[in-house]
Amino acid sequence: MRWRLLGSFFLIILIALGTVAIVTRYTTEQEVQTFLGHGGQVGLENLANALRSYYATNQTWEGVDAQLRGNQGRGQGIRASANVFWGEHTLADPSGVVLLGPSAADIGTVLSREVLDQSIPLEVSGAVVGYLVPEGGILQLPDNFEELLIERVNRATLLAALVSGGLAILLSLLFAALILRPVRSLTHAAQNMANGDFSQRVKVREGGELGTLGETFNQMSESLQEAESLRKALTADIAHELRNPLAIQRAHLEALQDGVFPLNRENLDLVVEQNQQLTRLVDDLRTLALADAGELALNKRPINLTDICRETAARFEPQAALKKVTLVSNCVEGPLYAIADKERLQQIHDNLMQNALRYSPEGGWIVLTLSQQEKWGVFTLHNNGPQIPQEALGHLFERFYRGDKARDRASGGTGLGLAIARKLAEAHGGTLSGANHPDGGVVFTLSLPL
Fold first, then answer.
1. Quick count: other Cβ atoms within 10 Å of Cβ 261?
2. Is the pTM of this model over 0.70?
3. Are 133 and 118 in contact (CB under 8 A)?
């Protein structure tokens, strides 16, 4: 990008300077020729043209004295267009007789041929009608004066082109550095990010495409840093979740090998229980991985959500009764169909119901409701357990998140239930949310498209 910008600037400079040089040379030649043709004195061209115009209009030089001298102080007429004070020059007729001059004594005298040869002939319709003699006459210049003058002008033009070109190149380098500064900053930050430093951010000092690029880079860097933090936390959580049941399982097996515990069904059941917990954890992790990758296989078919609501209440009625919790179901009457995987929907409800039973106090209640809201079938699960702390509401569906750090794994599950439930809801095109109910307790809401 740097060399493209520099190349573009350099090409523009060359084109501009080349055009200036050509135009300057042409116009300089024209002006020099005009200048030399009128005695080398500035302003004589306009004065000579004004005199020719006067004679062509009046066909005589009578009155030219009054016209010239009368308007000299007012800036009008011939004097105004000539832009030269008349008193410095001499006007003679075709015979060389002085009509106007610097002093009155010169009027009427006859100019010599040598003086007339150094004057400007005034021609009208191809005939010489007078002579304009500049003060001091036309300078005698060398034969090659025109070439010398043009050469000097060309040298001056070339010097000006070199100076302006050098300045333009310096400005191009400066502009290129300014333009590329945010790009260099982005490149440096991207290189550091490629080396594993996801804390890189760039300062956005301007708008436009580069400003948008900087903001997008910062958003990407923030997302990657957050993803890296979640990855590290997930790895640590998985290691922790696996280590505990493995340690317990190993301790029981070693105790059985050493004869500390008798080899009977009761002691083997403890080992099998830890193995089952490990199996559930691995299955849950596999389900999440498939959902994240979009490869979770769903056996979708028309499912009556009313049946799901009633079956869920019936399936958990014994557990609720055992814990002395009242389970109430309010399922909408009549069929309410959705295209879904029945087993996965049951898995969502199982996770939500187990979570509700875990936190409902003895003698408490749970209300399962199914209603239709426009084109959605909406399940709500409300229990009268303790409300969720405000700082924990935003983490409900994070993997391995536990609002109560003191809960043990046996009573708290794997910490993946709600995360899996939300992923399954999203895989069905629905949503799952959790909040504190205004009347107390916690309510989870599952919405599925009908």
1. 18
2. no
3. yes
Which domains, from first to last, does the chain contain?
208-293 (1.10.287.130), 301-449 (3.30.565.10)
Backbone dihedral angles phi then psi of residue 40, each to the nearest 5 degrees: 75, 15
Token duo for residue 40:
């080398």
Beta bridge mates, 446: 379, 432
pLDDT for the residue numbered 366: 92
- The answer to whether the beta carbons of residues 89 and 116 sit under 8 Å apart is no
- Other Cβ atoms less than 10 A from the Cβ of 381: the count is 20
Sheet of 90-92: strand order equals 98-100, 90-92, 127-133, 120-124
The sign of the torsion formed by the CA atoms of 110, 115, 116, 121 equals negative
Long-range contacts of 62-66 (CB under 8 A, 24+ apart): 64/91, 64/99, 64/100, 65/99, 65/100
Phi first, then psi: what are they for 135, rounded to 5°? -60, 125
| Nearest partner of 386 among 422, 352, 415, 356, judged by Cα | 356
For residue range 351-401, list pLDDT tens digits in order: 899 888 888 888 899 999 999 998 999 999 999 888 888 877 777 777 666
Segments of the chain with pLDDT less than 70: 1-5, 8, 23, 26-43, 68-87, 136-146, 148-149, 152, 206-207, 230, 233-234, 237, 240-241, 399-415
Instruction: Assess contact for 108 and 97: CB atoms under 8 A.
Output: yes
Tokens of 418: 């709600």
**Which pLDDT score is estimated for 39?**
47
The predicted-structure confidence for 92-115, as pLDDT tens digits, reads as follows 899 888 888 878 788 888 888 888
SS3 call for 196: coil
In terms of residues, how long is the chain? Answer: 450
How many C-beta neighbours within 10 Å does residue 432 have?
23
Q: What are phi and psi of 123, to 5 degrees?
A: -110, 135
Nearest Cα neighbor of 116 from 95, 99, 100 is 95
